[in-house]
Design brief:
The chain is an alpha/beta fold. It folds into two domains: 276 residues, Zn peptidases (Aminopeptidase, 3-Layer(aba) Sandwich); 127 residues, Alpha-Beta Plaits. Helices cover 37% and strands 22% of the residues. Helix 4 crosses helix 11 and helix 9 crosses helix 11. The protein binds zinc ion (2 copies).
């Protein structure tokens, strides 16, 4: 078959999305009304599978518990393999108008819209496969929100997962080994891309002292709550040693500070998130935290165990993908793509971006506060249709006309290879115990 040019292919894709609008909105309604938390997205996963099979795709299922991947080899010759991604999970926000009454889960981060955009783009691209190069992959990935840690730990103990983030699991399991680039559009208030995100390491720090009567014989005890307090002071006193350019944020809670006011606490627990803009800066900030908690335990001759519970890598945008996305927004809607610069929050797309060029763009069409009870779709056209069209156009640019644009993508150097990435992740999932107990 002779290859049509990129603008002819885009025209057909846009018309096909436009024609299927009502079906796309119906799918969005379905997914919005079946919110499920990370690694428990069973119904959502089944709905995505059914939708892929209806389109004639043959998805592999049960990847990283609930994830899916469907491949569509193209007939237009050699080229890269590019993946469109959507996240499956919802959040526990029981007051959200579309919360599941039984579980309290709700799409308060709008992940259902990602699946809708990915699937609507897939359906528009399937008829064009004979004229595109390389290969297309469509993926639904579990557990982006890094929540329900107890459930994650249970899955880790049962050997079902190793990391809390679904994309981290996709990398570990080799599901992205043959992929050359990944695109995703997240729900938002406006159409923009971030330049970068912080990465983080999650820490649970357990101090152990000795219980005693708080009034009668406090000198017989060792106050674990005081160790935790001192550790936080030591960390706070060093905040000005972090370089501004590293965007370090250390925040957390005291999740256990003792059992009764008249008992010297024998145990105290801190849960901290250590965030920064580069993997090195996260590691350096972690060293400050680790030294501080050890120094606090030493001062009281107590014990401390540091449980590193993993986290996400910093996100670094791809210049090529951002540029293609910006050109397509201009072509489609006549608007300029915003760039919001660096964000202090984190996403497991960061993990993907360390080893592959990745696009983590935002669409408009939502109002309210992300993760809040008021985060809802106000403009379905922007929330579902515009993003689907942009993803289809981006894909056609990457894989159309001999995959010319993808050559720039292949030239983009990423921060790590998969082995270096996995070593870093293991380091961020380690445990250290130190005792300064002199009885
Ligand atoms: Zn979120
Ligand atoms: Zn999200």
């Amino acid at each position: 078959m002779s290859q049509r040019n990129i603008s002819q292919l885009k025209k057909q894709a846009l018309e096909s999305i436009e024609k299927r609008k009502e079906a796309v909105f119906a799918l969005a309604d379905d997914l919005l009304n079946m919110p499920e938390q990370g690694y428990r997205e069973v119904r959502t996963s089944a709905r995505v599978k059914a939708e892929m099979e209806r389109m004639g795709l043959a998805p592999r299922c049960g990847l990283a518990v609930t994830g899916l991947r469907a491949d569509l080899p193209c007939g237009g010759g050699e080229g890269p393999r590019i993946a469109l991604m959507g996240e499956l999970d919802a959040l526990p926000v029981p007051t959200h108008p579309f919360a599941d009454p039984a579980t309290g889960a709700a799409h308060a981060c709008g992940h259902h819209a990602q699946l809708v955009m990915m699937l609507a783009a897939a359906e528009a691209l399937i008829p064009l496969a004979g004229e595109l190069c390389g290969s297309l992959s469509f993926m639904a990935v579990p557990a982006e929100e890094f929540q329900a840690l107890d459930y994650c730990r249970e899955l880790i103990a049962r050997g079902k997962i190793r990391y809390c983030g679904g994309k981290c699991e996709f990398i570990r399991l080799g599901i992205l080994d043959d992929i050359d680039g990944v695109l995703l559009i997240h729900a938002g208030h406006d159409t923009f891309v971030p330049e970068s995100y912080n990465g983080f390491c999650m820490k649970e720090i357990i101090f152990e002292g000795k219980a005693a009567h708080g009034g009668l014989r406090p000198w017989a005890g060792k106050n674990a709550a005081s160790m935790a307090r001192s550790a936080l002071n030591l960390i706070d006193a060093q905040r000005d040693t972090f370089d501004d350019k590293d965007s370090v944020r250390i925040h957390g809670i005291i999740s256990d500070g003792g059992n009764a006011v008249n008992v010297v606490p024998a145990r105290a627990v801190l849960e901290l998130q250590v965030r920064a803009k580069t993997p090195e800066a996260v590691s350096n900030a972690c060293k400050v935290v680790d030294r501080s908690v050890k120094a606090a335990a030493m001062a009281f001759s107590g014990k401390v165990s540091i449980h590193n519970l993993g986290g996400y890598m910093p996100y670094e945008s791809s210049e090529t993908l951002n540029k293609i996305h910006a050109e397509n927004l201009k072509e489609l809607a006549g608007r300029t793509l915003g760039n919001c610069g660096h964000r202090g929050s984190s996403t497991d797309m960061g993990d993907v971006s360390m080893i592959l060029p990745a696009l983590h763009a935002y669409c408009g069409g939502f109002a309210g506060s992300p993760h809040g009870a008021d985060f809802v779709v106000t403009d379905p056209e922007k929330a579902y249709i515009e993003g689907a069209k942009l993803l289809a156009m981006d894909m056609i640019d990457l894989l159309g006309e001999n995959a010319e644009a993808s050559r720039r993508l292949a030239g983009e150097k990423r921060k790590m290879d998969k082995d270096t990435y996995l070593k870093y992740k293991e380091n961020m999932s380690s445990t250290e115990e130190v005792s300064y107990d002199q009885a």
